[in-house]
Specification:
There is one protein chain. The protein has 2 domains: 132 residues, 2-Layer Sandwich (Nucleotidyltransferase, domain 5), CATH 3.30.420; 82 residues, 2-Layer Sandwich (Nucleotidyltransferase, domain 5). The protein is an alpha/beta fold. A hairpin with a 4-residue loop joins strand 1 and strand 2. It contains 8 helices and 9 strands. The strands form 2 sheets. A 5-stranded mixed sheet has the order 3-2-1-4-5, with helices on both faces. It has a 4-stranded mixed sheet with strand order 8-7-6-9, with helices on both faces.
Length: 231
C-alpha cells in the first residue's frame, strides 16, 4: 500500500512516502511563513524522488495535533483534499498517541508523552501500559505547565515513563521532582516516527479509512482569537 504521511502540527513540517509500511523517502523543513506552498512543494519533491505518480497513492495519514492552529488547518485540509481528489482512504492520528505507541516496557507503567506547547506549557496524555495488552487511555490530552504536570504525576502510584520533546525540554526538572532515575525515561527521539503514525492508521486505512468529517484538528487549548472574544 502506497501511503503519504503529512504532519504540519509544528513549524518543522514533515511529509513522507511509505510503501508496504516502509518509509521510502521523508522530508522535514522548518517554516515560518508560506506553509501552504511548502506542503505542496514537499509533496511534489517526494513524488519526484520516489518516481511515483500521484495517482499511485493509495492512502493518506495525517497528524491531527496537538499543535499550531494554522499549521494543523493547513495540513489536514491538504490531506483531506488529496484523499477526496484521488478517492483514497484517509486516517488522522494524534502525535501524542504515536509517541506512546513507540514505547514497549517489561512492566506495568503509565506512559506520558509530553509535547512542547510553547508559552511555558506542555501538551500531554496519560496511558496505562500492561505488557502484552493494548494501551489504554487513563487521562485524555490536556495542556499544563511543567509544574502542574509534575503535581499531577506525583499523585500517581504507578511507575512513570515520560517521553517527547516536552519532557526533554524540562528533563532535569521532571527527573528530580518526580524522583525518576535516568534509566526510567525514554532514550527514543523526541518526536514520533513516521512508522509509529502509520502503525496506528494501517488497520483503518485497510478498512476504508475514516469519515473525513470526523478528522478534526486536536487543538486542546483555545486560540488567541477565541481568548480575545471571551474577554
Amino acid at each position: 500500500m502506497k501511503v503519504i504521511f503529512v504532519d504540519t502540527s509544528t513549524p518543522h513540517i514533515r511529509l513522507a512516502l511509505l510503501d508496504n509500511a516502509q518509509v521510502i523517502c521523508e522530508k522535514e523543513r522548518t517554516t515560518h511563513n508560506g506553509q501552504t506552498s511548502h506542503v505542496f512543494q514537499f509533496c511534489h519533491e517526494l513524488l519526484e524522488q520516489s518516481k511515483w505518480k500521484i495517482e499511485e497513492l493509495q492512502g493518506v495519514v495525517v497528524c491531527i495535533g496537538p499543535g499550531s492552529f494554522t499549521g494543523l488547518r493547513i495540513g489536514i485540509s491538504f490531506a483531506k483534499t488529496l484523499a477526496f481528489t484521488l478517492n483514497i482512504p484517509i486516517c488522522g492520528v494524534s502525535s501524542l498517541d504515536a509517541l506512546a505507541a513507540q514505547i514497549t516496557l517489561p512492566q506495568e507503567a503509565l506512559i506520558v508523552p509530553l509535547i512542547d506547547a510553547r508559552r511555558g506549557e506542555l501538551y500531554g496524555k496519560i496511558f496505562s501500559f500492561h505488557p502484552h495488552q493494548k494501551r489504554e487511555v487513563k487521562e485524555e490530552a490536556s495542556v499544563l505547565t511543567p509544574e502542574k504536570w509534575i503535581e499531577k504525576l506525583s499523585a500517581q502510584k504507578e511507575n512513570l515513563f515520560l517521553c517527547g520533546n516536552g519532557f526533554y525540554a524540562f528533563k532535569e526538572q521532571f527527573l528530580s521532582q518526580l524522583s525518576l532515575e535516568e534509566t526510567d525515561v525514554s532514550s527514543l527521539p523526541p518526536e514520533a516516527s513516521v512508522n509509529s503514525f502509520f502503525a496506528l492508521a494501517q488497520k483503518k486505512l485497510s478498512n476504508g479509512g475514516e469519515d473525513q468529517n470526523k478528522i478534526l484538528p486536536l487543538y486542546i487549548r483555545p486560540s488567541d482569537a477565541e481568548k480575545t472574544l471571551s474577554l
